[in-house]
């Protein structure tokens, strides 16, 4: 399994009052990276806190086995992108945001530091090449591993019929 | 690593025209289940297609190492819940929704069948017990593994200061 890159103390040091949990040795399920995110943000300092649909053009590079899975994605669609925040430590249960002495539970924060560092962005598709989507709306570091793409719920009409007793 | 339960042909059979990809043998990153979701939906047939905030009361049971990470979650909050769709097959790149002969790329659908079957629901916290949240808004099978909880973006004020050049 890919390991985390070397720690960067400015981001990874445990602050006073923060509490580290022992992460279990076990793995309960395995992720497969389906590709990589290419952005102009070379490190965490360069990342905006939140992506914007008028932000810079970025690329979602999908690995060859998954190219057919892009069928039906069109220019102008909004997609949910799930990615793996591979630089984040995973073991804090109580954390203090920078410049804030208060401690918060990890699940009461949207910090990247969490046991399963999965993040979501909404992006707009600007162009499509073979196995690659040009999009706007990302805020992650260049090279971030890609986990999933799906149409934004707001634009998506379910293809399967409703379940019994469910509104169409 | 936990394996997928036995297949249920009604859900798991490959339909005509669907295309299976060889899932890589490798695991690129490991997930840790932080607890379990308890719902009244005993199997996939019983699940609504989408949870509702006036739906049945469900429980998010968090494992002991992560109890401190719930600090700061309060009754009435809306949370994003990420969970692992452990019953879904992961290897289809082109799929046909039930009763629909059209083929769609997996990334152009919101189907649970995808290489990394991670799902998100928005829930409202109705009550809090030790290590357990009572919530409404879920649509998944009883026993589904829990991956993450975080405050809904719409209600959340970031705790860290903005990055340079970013609006507060």
Secondary structure layout:
Two copies of one chain form a homodimer.
Chain A: H1 9-12, E1 19-20, E2 29-31, E3 35-38, E4 58-62, E5 78-84, E6 92-95, E7 104-105, E8 118-129, E9 132-136, E10 145-151
Antiparallel strand pairs in A: 1-6, 3-4, 3-10, 4-9, 5-8, 5-10, 6-7, 8-9
Give an account of the 3D structure.
Two copies of one chain form a homodimer. With 168 residues, chain A is mostly beta strands. The first copy, chain A, has one domain: YaeB-like (Elongation Factor Tu (Ef-tu), domain 3, Beta Barrel), CATH 2.40.30.70. In chain A, 2% of the residues lie in helices and 30% in strands. Chain A has one helix at residues 9-12, and strands at residues 19-20, 29-31, 35-38, 58-62, 78-84, 92-95, 104-105, 118-129, 132-136, 145-151. Chain A has a six-stranded antiparallel beta barrel. In chain A, strands 1-6-7 form a three-stranded antiparallel β-sheet, with no helix packed on it. Chain A is globular and about 50 Å long. The relative contact order of chain A is 0.28. Chains A and B meet through strand 2, strand 5, strand 7 and strand 10 of A and strand 2, strand 5, strand 7 and strand 10 of B. Strand 2 of chain A pairs antiparallel with strand 2 (29-31) of chain B, so a sheet runs across the interface.
Which residue ranges of chain A are poorly predicted, with pLDDT under 50 across at least 5 consecutive positions? none
* CATH 2nd-level architecture of chain A: Beta Barrel
CATH level-4 homologous superfamily of chain A: YaeB-like
> Multimeric state of these chains?
homodimer
Any idea what the shape of chain A is?
globular
Question: How many structural domains in the coordinates of chain A?
Answer: 1
Distance between the termini of chain A: 43 Å
Largest sheet of chain A: 6 strands, antiparallel, barrel
User: How are the strands of the biggest sheet of chain A laid out side by side?
Assistant: 3-4-9-8-5-10
Instruction: State the name of the first-level CATH class of chain A.
Output: Mainly Beta
The biggest chain-chain interface is: A-B, 70 and 70 residues
- Rg of chain A over CA atoms, rounded to whole Å, is 18 Å
- Figure out the total of helices of chain A: 1
Class by helix and strand content of chain A? mainly beta
Helix content of chain A: under 10%
Strand and helix order of chain A:
HEEEEEEEEEE
* Count of distinct strands of chain A: 10
Look at the structure and give the mean pLDDT of chain A: 89
């Amino acid at each position: 399994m890919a390991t985390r890159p070397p720690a960067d103390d400015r981001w990874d040091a445990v602050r006073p009052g923060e509490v580290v949990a022992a992460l279990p040795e076990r793995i309960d399920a395995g992720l497969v990276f389906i590709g990589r995110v290419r952005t102009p943000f070379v490190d965490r300092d360069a990342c905006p806190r939140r992506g914007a649909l008028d932000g810079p053009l970025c690329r979602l590079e999908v690995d060859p086995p998954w190219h057919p899975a892009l069928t039906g994605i069109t220019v102008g669609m909004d997609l949910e992108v799930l990615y793996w925040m591979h630089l984040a430590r995973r073991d804090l249960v109580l954390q203090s945001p920078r410049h804030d002495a208060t401690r918060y539970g990890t699940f009461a924060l949207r910090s990247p530091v969490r046991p399963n560092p999965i993040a979501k962005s909404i992006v707009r598709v600007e162009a499509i090449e073979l196995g690659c989507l040009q999009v706007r709306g990302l805020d992650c570091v260049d090279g971030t591993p890609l986990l999933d793409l799906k149409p934004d719920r707001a634009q998506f009409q379910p293809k399967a019929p409703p379940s019994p007793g469910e509104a169409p």
